[in-house]
Predict the structure.
Amino acid sequence: MARLTIDDLRKIKEKQSSDFSLRKGGYSAKVTVHMGTCGIAAGARDVMSALTEEVTKAGMDNIIVTTSGCAGLCAREPLATVEIINHPPVRYCDLNGEKMREIFKEHILGGNPVEKYALVRGCETTY
């Protein structure tokens, strides 16, 4: 296998940046479901399934759905972080499929964070 050159690495970086950048990629939202071992044990797969079903049903192609490992708050799992352009990110806790569906409709589609499920607003962003 050939060694990667600096130019190869630059191209990989540019592609990854555009894939995960909300503004540059033309995406309006990014939702991260935290799926560390603790999250999966608490039901994160159901949260992810509900989210992907809602995105598919709505026919939305401008939403990034991704996963990450443990967010460090095992007692509050399953967790998900919703990032909308020009708004502070919101981390939701103690989720299940139905709560994720409500968050999708109210926050991701409607722009109104669902405070009753929110753990924190602000503090992190990828754009």
In short: The mean pLDDT is 85. The chain has one domain: 27-121.
